[in-house]
Design a protein that fits this description.
The protein is of the alpha/beta class and 413 residues long. Helices cover 49% and strands 10% of the residues. The chain contains 18 helices and ten strands. The strands form two sheets. Strands 3-4-5-6-7-8-9-10 form an eight-stranded parallel barrel, surrounded by six helices. Helix 8 (163-170) runs antiparallel to helix 12.
Length: 413
């Protein structure tokens, strides 16, 4: 964003515009206005992924080690699985193990990488002092600067949780309180120290740290609803209003920014949440987790999240953070990652169709299906590997049809 404002279009803009099917000049204006962000740190040698108005809906996959399961090889496998399944970006949410080595390895993937720097700062505080309560703002600033210099493309920062919004949480009747891990860490630190959130109080310094490397700030929804009963409540909206103000400060400072959205939202409130965010945040790109549209789908939350994601993107959300089958239950496996990415890719593509994007792909599948051309059909699917496996396992005597209808196939009539 800063580059476009100060020195004209960069070399990658034309390639990005062609990939998105957009006019380069129009795309440049959208990036300069802040309605589109380019996920690309200046030292991370990848083609940027564009998120925002007029671009295809993108999908992010979260991975990362935990204190209980800290397998670096396992997380690398998950990253590779996510990329193969079609994820547009990955986020490293590690809170255990050798986090720095893992981050350096993930930066070798040909895909934008995001982080939540407060995790690294909290982990270092625990290792140094035995508790997060002794975390200093300096630890947080050092984590942000170190990750930016390494090549991290976007960072989630929970700058909307401050004394005022924390009071709103404490005075609310929330069932699940603060479910954001980063938000809960900061809230715990604030309550213990009596200090203001440094990511809010020193927001100008935060922007200074990331601006040099063109790192995009993702303003985290620390107070997102963690259950249907808490959806669209006062703490969520108060935080959103603060994030809207911070968006304008980012734009004034030449920092790319997107805003993160709600977690659990009933289906009939999803569209209103997106419209409200876009209005309050002046059209800044919107990044949503799910949203998950029911609390009873544990084990199948990737489906609940894809339903919410499709509706959210249809109403203007730009970036879907996947949800895996193990959400709320356990650290995901590589298979969970694959299922989560595919589910969110389906949601993203379904929303793109409502915008008139990539309809030719569906038409190609329809023509192949009508012509019983299975090989051609597989070329255009989101997950051709699974489709081929199903067909191979249940192959009919007649290679043209499938075992659902056999000789009574409607396409042969």
């Amino acid at each position: 964003m800063r580059t476009l404002k100060s020195a004209g279009p960069p070399a990658w803009l034309g390639r990005a515009a062609e990939k998105e099917g957009l006019n380069p000049d129009k795309l440049a204006r959208k990036i300069a206005s802040g309605r589109v962000v380019a996920l690309k740190n200046t030292v991370h040698e990848i083609d940027p992924v564009l998120v925002g108005e007029g671009t295809r809906v993108k999908v992010n996959a979260n991975i990362g080690m935990s204190p209980d399961l800290a397998s670096m090889e396992g997380e690398i496998e998950k990253a590779e699985t996510a990329v193969k399944a079609g994820a547009d970006a990955i986020m490293d949410l590690s809170i255990g193990g050798d986090t720095w080595t893992l981050l350096k390895k993930l930066l070798k993937q040909n895909i934008p990488l995001g982080t939540v720097p407060v995790y690294q700062a909290a982990l270092e505080s625990v290792r140094m002092h035995g508790t997060i309560l002794d975390m200093t703002p300096d630890l947080l600033w050092k984590a942000i600067e170190k990750q930016a210099k390494a090549g991290v493309d976007f960072m989630t920062v929970h700058s909307g949780v401050n004394r005022k919004t924390l009071e709103a949480v404490d005075s609310s009747n929330r069932v699940t309180g603060i479910v954001s891990r980063g938000g809960s860490l900061i809230a715990k630190w604030m309550r213990s120290t009596g200090l203001e959130n440094p990511l809010y109080a020193d927001f100008d310094y935060l922007m200074e740290l990331v601006r040099e490397y063109d790192v995009v700030l993702s303003l985290g929804d620390a107070l997102r609803p963690g259950c249907i009963a808490d959806a669209t409540d006062k703490p969520q909206i108060e935080e959103l209003i603060i994030l809207g103000r911070l968006v304008e400060r980012c734009w004034d400072s030449g920092v790319g920014v997107m805003v993160e959205g709600p977690g659990h939202v009933p289906l009939d409130e999803v569209g209103a949440n997106i419209i409200l965010q876009k209005r309050i945040c002046k059209g800044a790109p919107f990044y949503v987790l799910g949203p998950i549209v029911t609390d009873i789908a544990a084990g199948y939350d990737h489906i609940a999240g894809a339903i919410g994601g499709a509706v959210a993107a249809m109403h203007g959300a730009d970036f879907l953070c996947y949800v895996t089958p193990s959400e709320h239950l356990a650290l995901p496996t590589a298979d969970d990652v694959r299922e989560g990415v595919i589910a969110s890719k389906i949601a993203a593509h379904a929303a793109d169709l409502t915008r008139g994007i990539d309809r030719d792909r569906d038409l190609a599948v329809a023509k192949a299906r009508a012509g019983l051309d299975w090989d051609e059909l597989f070329k255009h699917l989101l997950d051709p590997e699974k489709a081929c496996a199903i067909r191979s396992e249940r192959h009919p005597a007649d290679p043209k049809v499938c075992t659902m209808c056999g000789e009574f196939c409607s396409m042969r009539q």
